[in-house]
Amino acid sequence: QDNSFEQFIINYCNEKLQQIFIELTLKEEQEEYIREGIEWTHIEYFNNAIICDLIENNQTGILAMLDEECLRPGTVTDDTFLEKLNQVCATHQHFESRMSKCSRFLNDTSLPHSCFRIQHYAGKVMYQVEGFVDKNNDLLYRDLSQAMWKANHSLIKALFPEGNPAKINLKRPPTAGSQFKASVATLMKNLQTKNPNYIRCIKPNDKKAAHIFNEALVCHQIRYLGLLENVRVRRAGYAFRQPYEPCLERYKMLCKQTWPHWRGPARAGVEVLFNELGIPEEEFSFGRSKIFIRNPRTLFKLEDLRKQRLEDLATLIEKIYRGWKCRTRFLLMKKCQVVIASWYRRYS
């Protein structure tokens, strides 16, 4: 219920993670259909980039305003920081404050005068402005860093590298908000170079007890985790996509024309394969470089057919091997019988 600077920067990180989730799932999903030339009706979804900009914008963002208050001369308090926010962010649709002279919130008794509220992606959160300036100015004095760096213990010296006299910097140390913002930017840059998988965890109840299912709580989490938008995009689109070459390589044994080797373009081979299997045309689409399958059941059918075909091929190999082994044994026994008979006739 009481949120301060710590919860603010945690929620900022959550917003950035949600933003990259949107970019790598919803946005990328729809852009791939366009790249592949698939007929597609665009589905609207909420992009929380506007909330991230409210927090991290270098000129008008909340963190920038907080740093400006921490660094400017004169009397600086949490109230002056809130006044500055009310001047700069008053017209922003996701910022709420009773002191912003905005008629929508002047009579909002649920919003105290010393607080501001942000409409995050996952809902509205109210922050107590008290302590923002002091916590953002969480600085370690240089003389303390230098004293710790002079310690004989190697671990302590390694924890305070800024105390090294050879690296003394007269510039003001960065604020806590600036350091956190830089760390989040590094994290986002790292995630964008990967191919992440997402696991969404749903709490069935607040008591952490078994066999209790709070439907309202679950619906709230599903709505604000963006699962509904993701499901809408997935249901309107295609559940599975794969380049033509690996698709043909995986399922070519299901068609006599493509097994064991297909002489020609991979796309043509996939077309022959799907026509041979009798898969309805509405269940798949051909892109420029990939085959798109709409429903999971079609993919499950292909996998079941492949599994059965592999068993049949294994049985065929086993049958041929057993036939070869028995024939080889028979020929050897026949040869031995001829040799024994010939020697018996010689001495009889």
Question: Can you characterise this structure?
Answer:
Among the domains are: 5-138 and 174-193, Up-down Bundle (Methane Monooxygenase Hydroxylase, Chain G, domain 1); 240-299, 2-Layer Sandwich (Alpha-Beta Plaits). The model has no long low-confidence stretch (mean pLDDT 85). A hairpin with a 3-residue loop joins strand 5 and strand 6. The protein has helices at 5-35, 49-56, 62-71, 78-88, 132-136, 142-149, 154-159, 176-192, 215-224, 227-236, 244-251, 266-277, 296-347; strands at 95-96, 115-120, 123-128, 240-243, 284-286, 290-293. It has 13 helices and six strands. Helix 1 packs across helix 2 and helix 3 packs across helix 4 (78-88). A three-stranded antiparallel β-sheet has the order 1-2-3, covered by helices on one side. The protein has a three-stranded antiparallel β-sheet with strand order 4-6-5. It has 348 residues and is mainly α. GO terms for molecular function: actin filament binding; ATP binding; calmodulin binding; microfilament motor activity. This is MYO1B protein. InterPro entries: Kinesin_motor_dom_sf, Myosin_head_motor_dom-like, P-loop_NTPase. Residues 1-307 form the Myosin motor domain. One of its GO terms (biological process) is actin filament-based movement.
